[in-house]
Write the structure tokens for this entry.
Amino acid sequence: MTFTGKRILLGVSGGIAAYKAAELVRRLVSVRARVKVVMTRAAQEFMGPLTFQALSGEKVGTALFGPGSDPLEHVSLGQEVDAIVLAPATANLIGKLAAGIGDDLLTTIMLAATKPILVCPAMNDQMWANPVVQENLDRLQARGFQVMAPESGDLACGAVGLGRLPEPETIVEALARLVSKQDFAGRRVLVTAGPTHEDLDPVRFLTNRSSGKMGYALARMAWRRGAEVCLISGPTALAPPYGVERLMVRSAQDMLKAVRQRFPKVDALLMAAAVGDYRPTHAKARKIKRGPQEEQFQLTPNPDILKEMGALKKRQVVVGFAAETHDLEDEARRKLAAKNLDLIVANDVNRPDAGFQVDTNEVTIIARQGEPLRLPLLTKEEVAEIILDRVVELLTAREQGTTGA
Ligand code: C5P
């Protein structure tokens, strides 16, 4: 798991959004991170250190000097952890960091810090719009800090605008990239996910039980590992993964158009979408009326997107998915060859705990050479990690001129 055993330093500065930092600690702890909180003096006007201590299980850093302070914390903390997150980061904290001021525990730690830093600004919209704040953030970014843009909405001061701290779960997602191995850095990954809708009339369509969860997990994990990710998604209720460019499509034909356009520029294509194999030949322009008569529909085969990309591919790694109810491995091998794929991920959709809609999956990964990799029941994120391990092996082998299969 991404955060297991990782040490995170959370710096909390004095804005009203400091209350959200408590939820951030809770979420980080729930994904098994170890969190050390350091608060500025102003932050302690909004939230008590005891709250953070109770949630993190660790003593909270509040002062450089005086009782309870540790004489070496100001140097060691920013070097011992795996990543640092400043949430909320006030305009004042951002200004001090940009100018190199260290006049309290948090800013002094930041001067000596050597680990990746995520800054999450939160402030009034006019403060955010102030050029000095923007210049300070530009300076931090130029020094390698990651800056998470604030969200737009109701602000605590009554104004409506840009300046809200993103939700804790979004911050955790952004932070996940900072603690993950970056073996996809500089690589572009295209993922398809979800079902397609094939219209019968303006209100009805043919579809399937795909939820999109496997494809979304692949997109999320590839982004965490440093990839630039485009997710082409059929209709689903899932939220777009943080950092990922998402294009929503409805039909197989729309999906084909989007994949065709993106495919030449990517290093890997992972087609986790359950693309409809057929569409109604004549979609009706008007809603079909109920009546006593039988209705007949003619179906036309949809283009096989994966097969088309398999035929077009140059250096890309192309991964297909095979959801089967019978002869799983034989069918998967046949598709691997017929569609000119590099890997195929086969899953038995008869099982209630694998395949469609659920959060777990039990798959077999088959490459062109070598033994199939039969995995136990895992979460879709764990499955995604293992698929991505295989993809990166193939990409690296290609870059080094070996086959890697
Ligand atoms: O042949 P089958 O539809 O079972 O193959 C499954 C794989 O092919 C999946 O990876 C799916 O995304 C892809 N596919 C496709 N276009 C279709 C049907 C399936 O790209 N029309």
Q: What stands out?
A: The chain has a mean pLDDT of 95. Residues 252, 271, 273, 275, 277, 302, 304-306, 320-322, 335 surround cytidine-5'-monophosphate (CB under 6 Å).
